[in-house]
Amino acid sequence: YTPFLIYTLHPSDMVVEAVARINVSTLTADEFICNYVKENRPVILQGALSPEWETALRWTPDRFAAATSPPSGGAVLVAPLMEDGRDKWVESASKWPKHQDWTPLPGVIHHDRVLAVAASRIEVSPSAFAESLRSRSEEATCPPTLPPLYADGASNLLKSFHFLAQEVPGPPSIGKELIFKRTDLWLGGKTTSTLHFDNVENLFVQLVGSKEFLLIPPGDTSKLVDGRLRKVYATWVPPSPQPSQINGGFSSDDNSNNNNNDNN
User: Fold this and answer.
1) Nearest to 31 by CA among 52, 45, 49, 47
2) pLDDT tens-place string over residues 62-83
3) Does the pTM of the predicted model rise above 0.85?
4) What is the torsion angle, in degrees rounded to the nearest 10, for the CA atoms of residue 180, residue 182, residue 187 and residue 192?
5) Taking a C-beta distance cutoff of 8 angstroms, is the pair 234, 78 a contact?
6) Is 130 helix (H, G, I), strand (E, B) or coil?
7) Which helix (H) or strand (E) holds 131?
8) Beta strand extents in 29-75 (DSSP E only)
């Protein structure tokens, strides 16, 4: 197995270049494959969504809670995040129970720190998920009762959020010559992802809001500082009515048998 590989940028070595923006009316599906897919070249495609996408483009928390609830009062599986939107963060290994007894992992060179992941999903109602999104908007008037929640891909359009599948058309026609493995769905407010790489290429469709990408070409690997970290999983603790107990937040429960042998 391979422990988590973390990279840190040398800002002084960065040369920022804008990704090309191409209107699909000037590009055929074959040209898209030859000029971008085969060349492993990122591109922003404008005008790529057909009218069938109009429903998904109008998604809001209110509409999500009121009009797309799953049958029989079902719940959705989502990831609780830190207040600043992170689902991963580096912290001292000393914060984790029995860290002195952890078995060494091949390739881990930083033993004094870990990569903590808010990966223990929780089940909430669609309306509660919508409330989490709504409570962190600029129009929010009440403090949130749940942490920031994030539906983070992982085939959830086929599982937890299957009731939204009918509102998501097939891939844009510019990719009709490609063979797609699946369609994943991300739903959330302000979120931040750590630097990583995907194992497969993808067409990313932004439905609502905006997303900023920082892409690093493979040839610039030497400009990154690499080091392998042990990955550990945090668990969100609901607020307690008892003042003597943890008043909400993330807990580093001792789950060392799973944490020590992560192979992601």
Assistant:
1) 45
2) 777 765 555 545 788 888 888 8
3) no
4) -70
5) no
6) helix
7) helix 126-134
8) 44-46
